[in-house]
## 1
Amino acid sequence: MAESSRKRKTQTGARCRRGAAINEPEEIIAPSQPQRLFSSVAQYERYTSKFFSKDIIEPRYPNDFIAEQNFECYDILHNLGLLPFLTNRQCYYPELVRVFYSNLQITDEWVILSEVKHVKIRMDINMFYCITQLGTQDVCFEENMVEEWRDDYSSHNAKVMICRDNVNIGGRILASQMKVETRILHYILCRCLVPRSTNLAQATEEDIILMWAMLTGRQLNWGHQVRYRMKKTLRDHAPLPYANHITDILIKFNVPLEDEPFEEVNWRTGPIGAEVIHSFGFVKNQNGEWIHKRDMQDAPIHDDRTPSPPPQPTQDASAAMLNDIIHEIRDLRAFVGSRFDSIDARVGQLEEDMAYVRRQFPPF
């Protein structure tokens, strides 16, 4: 057992060192001792067939920049009691996250059941609230308009609230058409609250309804919303959300975490702050207001001074930019190559593990 633990540490490399930056892609390794994680052959076979290679959505969180800039969306999140959930920077255990979801069941009463490393997990609504600090009352929303909001909601008016002026709101709403406040709110919604890995560049009808509810102060049962999102994850090919919150659940139920490979929330891509907002195309004007760059180009600038010509890039700056591009290409090649290598290794390891588990677990 000691030898096996040392081997697992070596395989995971820098990811096992708390506080280290995560620069390399995650290498998914089949469990070398299935009985360490599972209590039956059925659990292991479900894990290997449906969850072993599932992607984990990278945890994100709004940083202090959102508060320092006095964005209205920060006040909205604060008033809704969502900041403790959103700012969770807990590390996460990729293998245990997949095991948790592999064994996950959610009853009709929304009780969460799972099992990790032979520890049975049962969370009713009140315990889920204690762990996530998300409310358990108010309206339960599940993608479609709820009866309590039907008389007040207008899709057209909601789009007007979300989008910048002079934007065509007759069709799909793209993220690039949103105001700065709603653009940040939509990003946090899709990356943190109801995270998904695709279709991030446009607002779905569900996004529009949720943003309208948040902007108009509607009370929403966010605990139910998160549980509903977790239940949808059980479908094939769906990526796994809330990885850092799963750690809080494992700690609450005293699941042994020693010697388990873990990852910290990435310090470069995790925060939602200045760099993210600038990437949306928003800048501050002379009055300190955040506006889109296209709107700034159209606005007249009152300045009696003769504008000086823009500085020309120096040879050193051009060389530095070229080096940055070359490094990005090398990183991309290394990432793609490592993913193919890890797939080959997983297939071989999986074949060995299946033979091992058949020997260790005779048919019931």
## 2
Amino acid sequence: MNSNITINGEQYPVKMGFRALLDFEEMTGKNANQLGELSTKEMIALFYFGIKAGSRKEAKKFNYDFDGFIDLIEDYPEIIEQMGSLMTPEEGK
């Protein structure tokens, strides 16, 4: 999945590829086969690593660690809605 998310008025690419999955697995111990059984923290971590991977791929600065990303969600709760929209397949596709 490749898409974009807006955080504080700035667009960031999201890429849910192998890099994001490997970083997610390293942090959580869960692999791709367990993605249907994620806690809230794990879902946020997966999305965080997707943004980091997308930003890296497009050479865009994303200067947040995981705790900083959680703080962003606290300040900009619309990030959660965007996360949900990206994770839900569009009907008719």
## 3
Amino acid sequence: MSNFKFLDFVTEGKMIRTSDGVNRMSFTDACDLTLLYFLVLSVMRHYPISKRYVKTYATEVLKWGNWEYFRSSGNDLYGLLNIVDGDIKIVSKLKDPKNALLSRTRSSLPRMAVKRLLRNMANGQAPTMEDSNVLYKIDLGLRNSSYSTLRRKVASYTNLNTKEKKEVVTQLEFALKARGRNADLIDYFILFVSDYDLESKTAKDTEPTVSVPDPIPANTKDIQMLRMLGVPNKDLPFAYKVLSITSRGLPIPSRFAQAYQPIMQIVDDIVKAGPGYVNLLKQVHNRAKRAKN
């Protein structure tokens, strides 16, 4: 247990934590998410800062040379590849084992081509036409149709205009929020969309699961107020975005939780001081809400 009660419930985002934790996922889910992850990583390769993240992420997938066995320390894409192309025993732990096994036997991930694509990502190479062909092979091999249209757009990303790029990226964000709510790369991708101003106001969310709308954008004055609560300057942007992350039902990444620690300490001290201090905090909160309105 940590020194702060609230930090004990803060975990870094990860969709696949244990082999038993895949029982809420169908084989179709795993196939869709595998392609979706590759599409998200492919788009981020086009931008210098996020390209470094892709390089690190791909390197982690390739760390063991293959994805034959489930590894709790592996990232989400490693776990997905293990489901669709690794030890077939893990299929028995999916939501519908019988149909999952049938689907698995009918699918075929182009393993060597996927490894080649991951190596290109890990080496920091720019996307090529051959990489686009690998995305097509993944789509075809996994018999995936949910994101085929997005895959074609990602393959020709450099030829899209600004409006079209924003629509593609926003549709990927919708898909990732709906299908990979606890995905280990979702927080970074959301920040990537924001930092590069790639959010489309006209793109429609057609995902089967309705995603929660993002809260109001950050206000510079509000961010500076956090400094008065003990948040260091370098942590201000991260601390402010904690509410944005939790309002979407997402786990808080460790870097954001660390930035928010001074505020957690204040609340923790008040809770430990007893009901009188808690009631005072509630009174101040009510006054603040009225002042804000």
